[in-house]
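Open question from group meeting: does this chain pack into something compact, or does most of it stay loose? Before anyone orders reagents, we agreed to write out a predicted structure and look at it together. Recording both the input and the output here so the notebook holds the full record.
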Amino acid sequence: MFLILTIMNKDNFGFGVLSSQPVSLPVGATLMKTDQSISTASYDDGATKRGRLTDFFTLTDVNPFGVNTNRFTDKNGASVYSTKVAFDWSTYNNSTVLAYYFGDMGTARPWATQLSQYVGSTIDGLTGWYLTNFVEMVNIMNFALMGNYQLNYAPFSTILRYFWVSTQVAGSNGVATDLGGINPFTSSNKLSALNGIWVRVCNVSVSGGVVTIS
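Structure tokens returned:
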């Protein structure tokens, strides 16, 4: 995407001259930190700590509520999560943010059931929730907890191990998490009853200090 930038210059006679040139707008962001901070070898992830954000939980600037740098908040900018919906402000692009619904993650179901479970549901005033895909799940996995349940942190705070993701391959077996193992993903029969977390891309508007999410 390009923005046409118009520049006013003066010619030799003192008159304004307009010139236009394309300016490339940013189309992406630096990858996230994994939150590993313990190094076991030179130049490993725990040593270099590459990635965006101050750390896994902390933005480099305030979130749209303007009062803190918390990566995760509820719809009111707090950490109450009464509706079991967490907004991940690391995904905020000045117009949308990714929300995660984890209120029913303890109910295991087959893959096809988890896919459609909340598509037509309204949760926290927001309708249409989809089972996390591979990238959306990796996004919230804290790899400082590698081998020790990567979702065992607030707001998720769970030691559930096996979650379906919507990213799959053809056949009877599909992709699921294994958050208690060193390899965080595994293969499972799609008829197996596993857990789920659901997401929704939400619109965000900020006016007069009021954040509206829809």
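Observations to bring back to the group:
The helical segments are 45-48, 111-116, 134-139.
The radius of gyration is 21 Å.
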